Amino acid sequence: MTSTAAQQGQQGEQAILLVSLQQNGKVLNATVNSVAQESSCFSASAVMGTSLKGQVILPGGEAIANLQLSGSLGSGAGSGTTLNMTGAMQSEANNAAGTFKLDPAPSGCPNSFGTFELTRVSMP
Prior knowledge:
Elements: E1 2-3, E2 16-24, E3 27-37, H1 44-47, E4 51-56, E5 67-72, E6 82-89, E7 95-103, E8 113-119
Antiparallel strand pairs: 1-8, 2-3, 3-4, 4-5, 5-6, 6-7, 7-8
């Protein structure tokens, strides 16, 4: 997840979250299992164990805004903050990308929206 820069011409912060996804038909559930890289908007204490619920509708090879996830951040600095994600997942379900918004922004988070990318990784 990369937050949008607070000022024009600056690069946003990047956070790397390891998330497990489970799909049952159109229903999609996700859980943040670990944080490989923290940012001011995504601290490990705020997002570890966060559950997201939503849906994915995989079209026949088309990439459209077919992915929606949302959930409340866990305890810690982000408590009371909702993470909303909207994007597109490819039909083979190996990649997805889109935008996110944190509402309200956690304390210390300079900009509460940005982009995300999901990439499937094999787990041992």
